[in-house]
Amino acid sequence: MPVITEIEDLKRIYRRRVPKMFYDYCESGSWTEQTFRDNVSDFDLLRLRQRVAVDMAGRSTKTQMIGEDVSMPVALAPVGMTGMQHADGEILAAKAAEKKGVPFTLSTMSICSIEDVARHTTKPFWFQVYTLKDTDFMERLFQRAHAAKCSAIVITVDLQILGQRHKDIRNGLSAPPKLTPKSVANMMTKVPWGLEMLRTERRQFGNIVGHAKGVSDPSSLSSWTAEAFDPSLDWDRIAEFKRMWGGKVILKGILDADDARRAVDVGADAIIVSNHGGRQLDGALSSIRTLPEIVAAVGDQVEIHLDSGIRSGQDVLKAVAMGAKGTYIGRAFVYGLGAMGQQGVETALDVIHKELDITMALCGKKDINDVDRDILLIDDEFHRWRRNI
User: What predicted TM-score, i.e. pTM, was given to this entire model?
Assistant: First the structure.
């Protein structure tokens, strides 16, 4: 058993264990990947203020996200094709999240279906949906999420047009993977991954195949996907989805204060400041740089979360200090899942919690709910690209 002290340790194991097309799917952004890189590096522009001689007994990282108790302000983000990173990946990740007391968000483009995850968990999870044209499919998707007792819907609003990710095109990304000489040669070097995938029946998009009209097998999925996303999306359509669901709604993909105000207008329970992990508009600001403007605009009207770039408990603490009520990890938990299955996701969450707890203490805070900008030292470069502070 390797010694795991940081998320990077899991990433190294993950890279050795998972086929290249799925590693590249996780570890890439659109176009030049500038925003993908900035999401991580911009956290370095926020330094921490050390305090001493403060009673640190009885510390707590417990808080709430959209009214739900959480062990720390961290949720597992919706990640497509998680079940190709490890057999039954969504089920394993959901079980790990439940055990560690944090929310799990299932992607519509998951390998394991809503029903699969519900059967293997006892705690309600969140379900992510895209803004698709097919109203009938969307209504049935919401009905299935209700039947699975999902406690919130996360609507992704920044994917009406798909950003280009060069690596996915070059690799011929698909689920199940297309068998080409190149992909077969690579998969032959990933024997444990292959054996696990042979033992499961879940190798295609469980929420789509057999549920969307005209999609009865993986071969018919690509044409459906090309037509499914709605380029004419507007705020009225988002409000319509909210009415269809009828429960708590989180809007994911907000990067601008004006859009944050519109999200408040349609009645969002929370918004996620996110650039889709740098996978959509390359050249957009990192999520952490965008956060202060959005907090200033709507922070007293809606719960604000942050996604994209979180790789450590220190990143979580910095985001909370800048005004986020919660954060999401995507790649960090996928590294753990691909490396060691459910145990790897639990390990990733343990690493992040330990970093969060110790760093919070060294900054002189004993309750995550008391953390604010007082713990930060902010480089002038951090504000360089802002329109408003």
Answer: 0.94
